[in-house]
Amino acid sequence: MKTSGVRRRAGGAERRRHEEAELTAAVAGIWRDLLGAEATDDDDFFELGGDSLLATWTAARIQDELGIDVTLDDLFQQTRLGALVAHLRLLPRRARSAEAVAEAADGALTAAERAVWLAAELAPQATAYLISVVVRVRGDLAADLLEDALGDVIARHEALRTAFPLVDAEPERRVEASVRVPVTRVTEAGPPGPARLRELAAEDAESAVDLGRAPLFRARLVADRDRAAALLLTVHHAVFDARSLELLVRELGECCAARADGRVADLTPVPGPGVFGARQHAWLAGPEGRRAVAELAGSLTGLPAVLPFPRTVPSGTAEGLGAQRREPVDERLASDVRRLALRHGATLHMVGLAAFAVALAGWTGTDDLAVGAAFSGRTTPESQNAIGCFVNVLPIRVRTGGPEPFADVLARVRDATLFVARHQDVPFESVRAWFRQEGGTPPEIRVAFGAQDVARPAYRGEGFELTGREADTEQARLDLTCWLEAAGEDSLQAFWTYRPGLLTSSDVAALHQRFVEVLRTGTGTEPADS
C-alpha cells in the first residue's frame, strides 16, 4: 500500500510537471509571436519589449487559446514568464468558445467608426481624419505585380470595401462585394527620395474623401520605369488605424511573393469591424456592459469642465488645421526613462503620461486632468488580424496633487491607466450618454498623450523589401497632443500637434521643456551638457 501511494504521488507530480511544461510552452509561444523573442522562465515581458497594447493582445490570446481567464492586471503583476505560468495554473479555466465567426454584413457602425464619422461630419471638407501611408519598395518588384497585390488585400478585408452612406439621416455600413480602385501611376526618372514621396503624399491628402462611397482611400503607385518604388495611400481613419498599417505591409508582401512565384495568394476573408461591432452592441446592452460603462463614467465625475490654457491667440485657422513640433529627448534621459518604467512595473506610456500631466498641470494651474489615450480596441484574437478602425480614445483621469515625488504620480497614473485599459471596450460616446442620462455635463477630450514604437512595419521577400510608415501631418484632431516616439533603446522624440488658434509654437516649446524637466526630476538625470 505504501508503495502504491508513493507511485500515485510520483505519477501526480510528473503529470503536474508535464502540464506546467505544456502551459509554459504555450505561453512562451504567444510571447514569441507578439514580441518576436524566445523567452525562458526568468525573462520579463516588458524587458523583451512588451507594452500595454501587447499585454492586451497576450491576455486575449491566453483567454482564447488556453481557456484561462487572465486579466491585464495579472500580466502587469506577473511579468516574468515562470511567475506568470505559475499564476495561470491557479486561475479558473473555461471551455473554449465554439461560437462561429459571422461573415461580414451591412448594418450599424461600430463605436469606433461612428466616433470618427461624427468628428468628420462636423467638418466634411476638413482632412484631419485622413491618414497618409507610404509603403516604400526596395529591390526588384514589378509595378503591375504590386498593384495586383493591392487588389488581393482589398478583396480580403471588408473595411477596404466599406462606405458609410446616409440612410434616413443616419450613417449605415455598406460593404461592397468588390470595388474598383483607380491607382494613379507616377513614373519617376530614378528612385524617388523621401522629400518627393512626402510631396506626393501631401498632394493626395489635400482633398477630403467621400464617406458615402467605397473605397474610402486613394492610391498612387510611384514607379521607376516599370519597377515599383512606393505605394502611397490616402485612407480615411474610419476604415484604418495603426495596426492596419502593419497588416497592410505584411499582406502586400505575402501577396507579391505569391504572385511572383506563380501561386494563388491567400484571399480568405477576414472578419471585419462589423462582426466585432455587433458583439460590442450586444455586450453594451447586457448587464456586464452597462456595469462597465457606469464604472468608467463614475471615475470621471467631478472633472473640471474645460482645460484652461494660459491664453488664446486668435489665428483665423479653419477647424481641424493645426501645426506640429518635433523635439528630441537626449539619449541618457531616454535610457533612464526606460529603466524607471521597468523599476516601477510601468510602461513608457505610463511614465510619459505622468510627466505630461505634471507639466500640463503646472502650465494650466489645473491638477485634475482628463488626458485622452488611444486604446487599440482589439481585445479578441480575430480582431488583431483585421484591417479597419478599432481604436478607442478614452480619457484617463490624472490627479497630480501638487508638489510630491514623481514616483507617487506615476503609481496613480499606472493604476488609472490599467483601470481604463480594463474598460477599453466601452465607447467614449457611451460614457457621455451616461452623463446626459444622469443629468451631468459629459466630459470632453481636449488633450491626449501617447507612446509608440516607430519601428517601421516591414516585409522581406525574395529580392524585394517593403517598409511602411504613416506620414507626418499638421492636422490637429484635438487642441494638443503629444506622442512620445521610441526608435530604439536610447532614442526618444516628442511629436507635438496643436491648434494655433489656442497655442503658439513658443507655447509648445515651453511645454516640451517643462515635460523634459519633469522626466529629469523623476529619473534623477542631469542635463546632457552638465
Describe this structure in words.
With 530 residues, the chain is an alpha+beta fold. The chain contains 15 helices and 16 strands. Helix 6 (143-156) crosses helix 8 (242-260), helix 9 packs across helix 10 and helix 11 packs across helix 12. The radius of gyration is 24 Å and the shape is globular. The termini are far apart. Residues 97-104 and 313-320 have low confidence and may be disordered.
Give a brief outline of the structure.
The chain is an alpha+beta fold and 530 residues long.
Can you give the mean pLDDT? Answer: 87
Overall helicity: 40-55%
Number of strands: 16
Largest sheet: number of strands, sense, barrel closure: 6 strands, mixed
> What class do helices, strands and sheet pairing give?
alpha+beta
Give the N-terminus to C-terminus distance in angstroms.
76 Å
Which strands sit side by side, in order, in the main sheet? 6-7-8-1-14-13
Give the number of helices: 15
The Cα radius of gyration reads 24 Å
Q: What proportion strand? A: 15-25%
Task: Note poorly predicted spans.
Answer: 97-104, 313-320
Shape annotation: globular
Keywords summarizing the entry:
single chain, 530 residues, alpha+beta, six-stranded mixed β-sheet, 15 helices, 42% helix
Which SSEs are present, and which pair or pack?
Elements: H1 2-35, H2 52-66, H3 72-77, H4 81-88, H5 111-122, E1 130-139, H6 143-156, E2 162-163, E3 166-167, E4 170-171, E5 174-175, E6 183-188, H7 194-204, E7 217-224, E8 227-236, H8 242-260, H9 273-285, H10 287-298, E9 323-329, H11 331-343, H12 348-364, E10 368-375, E11 392-399, H13 406-422, H14 428-437, E12 447-453, E13 458-460, E14 464-470, E15 480-486, E16 492-498, H15 505-523
Parallel strand pairs: 6-7, 12-15
Antiparallel strand pairs: 1-8, 1-14, 2-5, 3-4, 7-8, 9-16, 10-11, 13-14, 15-16
Helix pairs in contact: 1-2, 1-4, 6-8, 9-10, 10-14, 11-12, 11-15, 12-13, 12-15
